[in-house]
Amino acid sequence: MAHLYTAPTSTTLPARGKAGTRSLADAQAAASACAAQQARTEARTYAARVARLAVRSLYQELCLYPKPGLVSLVDSGSHDDMDALTFVRSLFSLRHYFRQICLAGWDNAAFARLRQLGIDAEAAMLRATRGINTHRGAIFSLGLLCASAGRARAQGMASSPASLRAVLLIRWGAELAGHAAIKPAQQHSSNGLRVAARYAVSGAREEGALGLPSVFEVGVPALLAATASGASARCARIDTLYALMAHVSDSNVYHRAGPAGAQFVRQQAQRFLALGGTRHQRWHALALADHRNFVGLRLSPGGAADLLAASCLVQALAGPAA
């Protein structure tokens, strides 16, 4: 009887060697497939969370009041064609878009893919709102942030404001610059593009190419500073909205009232901040008076509102649970 440690005969060596090789290859393939499945599950879970934060950020902006000339749960501001329900329908239509564009960022998609997702999201928004533009600017800015969050997480980076902006510029900055340089035909231009061409002001495309400076250099610092000073979430967002109104060349305002209207918005915002913002004892009355004046003049700083929502999203992504 052969001993347990007796070497096998030469005729059995090749067969066992091939089987062992096949078994090892099968095990490696199974491990690789399992790892890929786990990574995809992680990506989908994270993208779903980012989408919820994006929708929540837009809802936080909608709920804010008083905010000059803008739609809220209280009234329709300077708008006759939309109300809070219009915005809610729009938000509901965008929830899948934010998840999809986050996954596209995770997968290192080219800007052309992000752009197509944005175009599809805008079409879905317009269907939900019966042709009313509620969130065109937000689709662009929050979409880029969701993509950047996905790319950062895929690379094992923290979702800090600095990381998100670095990823945005490094991965898509050149493509965004090329996108900003394109001059669409007038008949295919949005109100923002026509305003930019007429008044030589920057718009969403230029903001994207520069890495959303109004978000990362104005909105987020204002939001974080107000929060750190002990302001409530509501007061921090009011102050941040006014900071953005004082800074942004808002295409919505230019479209409605031209340079004079834009100057009025900046002056009122600067006045509110100079008085201390929400730290002023009568801040609510001051903001409410601004709201009524803006409604009377049909002014609506919707661009600043979109950037406020984007700033809220960056703050949320930087939180411990993001």
Structural class based on helices, strands and sheet pairing = mainly alpha
Q: Tell me, briefly, the overall form.
A: elongated
What is the number of helical segments per DSSP (H or I, 4+ residues)?
Answer: 12
Distance between the termini: 65 Å
Q: Tell me the radius of gyration.
A: 26 Å
Order of helices and strands: HHHHHHHHHHHH
The low-confidence parts are 1-14, 194-201
CATH third-tier fold name = Triphosphoribosyl-dephospho-CoA protein
Largest beta-sheet characterization: none
* Top CATH class: Mainly Alpha
- If you average the pLDDT, what whole number results? 87
Helical content class? over 70%
Number of domains: 1
Summary of the model, kept short:
With 322 residues, the protein is mainly α.
Write structural notes for this entry.
This protein has helices at 13-63, 84-106, 111-128, 136-154, 161-181, 191-199, 204-209, 213-228, 233-247, 251-274, 283-297, 302-317. By secondary structure, it is mostly helical. The protein has a single domain, classed as Orthogonal Bundle (Triphosphoribosyl-dephospho-CoA protein).
